[in-house]
Amino acid sequence: MYTGAPTARAMTCARKSRGHDSVERMLEPFYSEIRIVHIVCVALSGAIFTVRGALRSADSSAAQHAALRYGSYAIDTTLLLAAVVLTTIIRQYPLSSPWLTMKLVLVAAYIGFGTIALKRGRTHVIRAAAFALALVTFAFIVGVAIRHDPRGWLTPDGAASAAPSPRRVQHRRSVPTPGANISAHGAPAM
Question: Could you tell me the residue ranges of all domains in the chain?
Answer without folding.
Answer: 22-152
